[in-house]
Amino acid sequence: MNQKTPKSALITGASNGIGKALAEEFAAAGHTVIVSARSEAKLQALASQWRQQYGVAVHVLPSDLSQPGAALALAREVKALGLEIDFLVNNAGVGLFGEFEHNDGEAEVAMMRLNMESLVLLTREFLPVLKARQGRIMNVASTAAFQPGPYMAVYYATKAFVLSFSEAIAEELSGSGVKVTALCPGPTASGFQDLASMQDSSLVKGKRLPTSEAVAKAGFRAMQRGQRVYIPGVMNRLMAWSVRFTPRRVVTAMVRYLSRPVAA
Questions:
Q1: Overall number of domains in the chain
Q2: Please, which pLDDT band fits residue 189 given cuts at 50, 70 and 90?
Q3: In which domain, by residue range, is 197 found?
Q4: Which pTM was predicted?
Q5: How far apart (Å, rounded) are the C-alpha atoms in residues 46 and 35?
Q6: Greater confidence, 255 or 153?
Q7: Which one of 53, 165, 173, 230 counts the least CB within 10 Å of its CB?
Q8: Active site residue: 155, 156, 230, 257, which one?
Q9: Which of 38, 25, 47 is nearest to 136 (CA)?
Q10: Per the domain annotation, does 221 fall within a domain?
Q11: Which CATH number characterizes residue 133's domain?
Q12: Is 155 a catalytic residue?
């Protein structure tokens, strides 16, 4: 049932995977949804579907947040809509699989801008209104945040940043009414692996992965509870906790083995 006075949610990376599923969770809850991603066509199709299915307002603001200045431009577009944000979901992110020495350097920098810089800038831009409205922030990290990641060295490092940043500002904002959640899913059937060119990684090849919808539902509930760090899945939680008691060099070697390219 839709709320009489809908709240507003901004979700980045909302055209597919976990971002798409999270956006639909907000729409199903009766909230006004602002969706952003690179593909305007995908967003417009989803917006039409959700308007009809859930009877909510959906605003489409396409943006490539890996580009310089894109995050602040998106913030200006959102503010121009005249909507006050109650929920900010920084989901947009990408990975790159391969040995650091051989990966494209410009692609690595663009990934850092997308995974870290855009998240920080959007959080900063919307924090005043979120404090005024006692809103919620969800930053999508990963189980990759808990250890170094050979074959995805920069990606793992960006997610460690997201987790650390989220926990730090959650503590800073304690008592303000704003709750911050770092969602840390493990490998998920979301299309991420194809974009990261990691189809041949033993982490995902031949594995049955949880769906984006299941991860989004669990993450949405965790955000509503105000949980600071949420890791979907018992095995993922055990893995994240176990690295605290294992020498870091051993952990890194294990990740290298588990992530290694495997033959077709």
A1: 1
A2: confident
A3: 8-259
A4: 0.88
A5: 9
A6: 153
A7: 53
A8: 155
A9: 25
A10: yes
A11: 3.40.50.720
A12: yes
